[in-house]
Design goal:
Helix content: 40-55%
Bound molecules: uridine-5'-diphosphate-xylopyranose
Shape: globular
Distance between the termini: 19 Å
Order of helices and strands: HEHEHHEHEHHEHEHEHEHEHEHEHEHHH
Amino acid sequence: FLHLANKLAEKGHKITFLLPKKALKQLEPLNLFPECIVFHTLTIPSVDGLPDGAQTTADIPITLGGFLASAMDRTRGQVEEAVRLGKPDLIFFDFAHWIPEVAKEYGAKCVNFLTISAACVAISFVPGRSPDELTVPPPGYPSSKVVLRGQETNFLSFLSYPFGDGVTFYERIMTGLVKCDVISIRTCQEIEGIFCDFIEREFQRKVLLTGPMLPEPDNIKPLEDRWHQWLNRFEPGSVVYCSLGSQIILEKEEFQELCLGMELTGLPFLVAVKPPKGASTIQEALPEGFEDRVKERGVVWGEGVQQPLILAHPSIGCFVSHCGFGSMWESLLNDCQIVFIPHLGEQIFNTRLMSEELEVSVEVKREETGWFSKENISGAVRSVMDNDTELGNLVRRNHAKLKESLLSSGIISGYANKYVEALEKLV
Ligand SMILES: O=c1ccn([C@@H]2O[C@H](COP(=O)(O)OP(=O)(O)O[C@H]3OC[C@@H](O)[C@H](O)[C@H]3O)[C@@H](O)[C@H]2O)c(=O)[nH]1
């Protein structure tokens, strides 16, 4: 949302950016137009079941998302007040399904800006279908590859769970899609054209695409010296970087299996994940003897790192990711080999899009237990990192071709420009 705000500000538009206080520190440095983009903090009310001080999804395990949604719904009065004072022409939202009502009352138009894949939207949210029917793709869904298989359909059950005050997750998203003035998605035709066309047909309206909306590389802080120095010790294209985004907190056994999988690759590695459940530090949760065995070549780090800059470092050869949509784009627009280890249903769709539809990455095979074994993690990494493997060559070639075609012809900046123009026409 902030990268989009930067694009709008670049064209001279004024933006009021509503966010919880805690997120301010992370987002302020990314604001490239402080004279146009003003942050307006919301006070997140306390809600039974939501841990004290939690304000963003990064502060809580995924299972508590419904409580956070309730807290966000209860900021409606603060949001309405900001709208009343700011008199915006447009309001952008994703999860706040009540925004269309607010926009209407104050004479604004509203844009539902989806920052997940069009494939995930297309298969999950079809007008006239109930969430119980989703175990099979909707009629006319354009892919037999970007689907959930077997036990994975269990992931869809969360769509029917209460998610906020008096609304299920499915109803929340569907209401936003049906009632908004504009549906827009952070994607592009070249990657997800067939899914975007399907959504347009089903909702019988034009869907505006923003392209990947990534930050301008020149405008962000340089890579921390600690990682710059550490990565410089290794050969170009030799290091495996692993991160699972801002939301995933692993079980201790899963965390240890991931560490052992990295060890088993025999390659240098940097893993940046949160400490697992029940541990306050990474060190106390590491497998026995692990640090001694890998100290020359491996680091497991319990805090966030500057992912886009790490990925751009020449020593990085492989990115092991949960395939959150942000990481998916970052992997695609870098040169490293890509291995996905998806955790949630939506991340599985993104993974299938990349690994099966576009064939630019590989997916780690899941065990019956639902998690991933060290052998499968290491096997997937080696399958793309060992010299001259058929699979490694195939994904490298396809990835390079796609990246080249997206970057070379100004496609990405074209999307952002056309998107802003379309919205200008709308108001
Ligand atoms: O250490 C880190 C980890 C991550 N990041 C950045 O944080 C962002 C993470 O975003 P992702 O979309 O990949 O993943 P998250 O898990 O945080 O996102 C969430 O929203 C998007 C959905 O697609 C994901 O499924 C959901 O989990 C990326 O831009 C990445 O560069 C860091 O800068 N440092």
